[in-house]
Amino acid sequence: MTFANENMLLNQVAIGDEKAFNKLHDFYRPSIYRFIYKFIKSAELSNDICQEVFMKLWEERSVIQEINSFKSYLFTITKNHTFNCLKRAAVEDRIKGEVLKSYSVSKNDTEDVLLVKEYQQFLQAVLDTLPPQSRAVFKLCRQQEKSYEEAAQILGVSSSAIKKHMVRSMKVIKFAVEKDMGIAFSIFIELVAQSGNMLLEVI
Known about the structure:
Radius of gyration: 22 Å
Oligomer: single chain
CATH superfamily of the largest domain: RNA polymerase sigma factor, region 2, helix turn helix motif
Number of strands: 0
Strand content: under 5%
Number of helices: 10
Order of helices and strands: HHHHHHHHHH
């Protein structure tokens, strides 16, 4: 859904018309807030990010006329700011606490599913870098929910060997998440766990 006269409003915003900007803000803010809240699960932080998004939009208003799809542009800014918040949560305990305090993803929501899928794909890419035996252990213990004893019997090794593989694998995953994605490992665990396909636990 867009304004019938959105292009005209965007042209006015581009030259600094605050009234036109306020109309865009009032129209898009509810959907932007809902988008952010699905991932952040904190009203306070979601409001803060909303404000950051529209401040960014106003600061870069001069390029608005060059944008083919304003809605896509707006949601790209929103996604970037949302992920930046998750990255800050990796080093700021208050934000991490707000994000995890009441986190619950609805498996029926398209945007939530897409985010979980993106995180799962990252996890799979990291798993693909592990040695074959470690991948086999991870698959048995986390994807098939086998106990260490069951996995040891299947692979013909000791339970302590299984644990060593899992400890090393989890260290590799944790390092990759915090280095490449820049988010707290605890948040990554929470998001991936929503799928019910790959179970991650801190060992």
